[in-house]
Task: structure prediction
Amino acid sequence: MAMPVRVVIDSSACLPKEVVAELDIAVINLHVMQDGEDRTTSGLSSLELAAAYARQLERGGDEGVLALHISKELSSTWSAAVTAAAVFEEGAVRVVDTSSLGMAVGAAAMAAARLAKDGASLEECYDIAVDTLRRSETWIYLHRIDEIRKSGRISAATAVVSTALATRPIMRVHGGRMEIAAKTRTQSKAFAKLVEMAQIRAEGQPVFVAITQNEAREAAKQLEALLQVSLPEGSSFMFVDVDPTLAVHAGPGAVSVSAVFANEAPELSTAKPVLK
Result:
């Protein structure tokens, strides 16, 4: 039986294939291109998105399509999605202004898809996605800043100071943009700071945590172990690999924590892939 609401994301949400298959979520891959010795990324076009939305509507999305994409401050994909949605009957495609990226968007998609499987309306799926995003935080530990400096996601002055002081910053996604949440000298101090920030934000309530890594599996395992013993009982964890488009900007060794707080939502309970 087809779900009345179809959930569409782009690959920057970093959802594992097992979860995508289980929840029947449609994923559109963002683009990675080789530019000489460097790799660059580009967002999805309105034509690509319109075609993807049309396919999902044809699959039986009688209520419509819910589209969740990377922050409009970080990619042109959101504006292309709005243009694509305008091709269809009004209300057929609902585009969420996520102001986020990675597994914060992935968690919102999971929550919406869970409701969609139970026959929820497009409005109900939209509301749970927005609420999940509202309760989310994303922090990113950068093992080095070369890639994010090249991408223009931090200022030249910040990059120079970070390099001179040999700092390993923790970034935070806030208002759809990247900002520095903390500066640390070592990975161990960075992980201790991440745990501290997550504990404070949790306020004693269970947390859904997704740890995303780029060429840093052992480090991600270490961070998960620290979070498991520090966060409230009932918290759940998921490990995922970073999407190639995000890896271009984060660089090797990066580990991010996307957490949904005050989590009493069973719709986020699903298969939890582990690192191999």
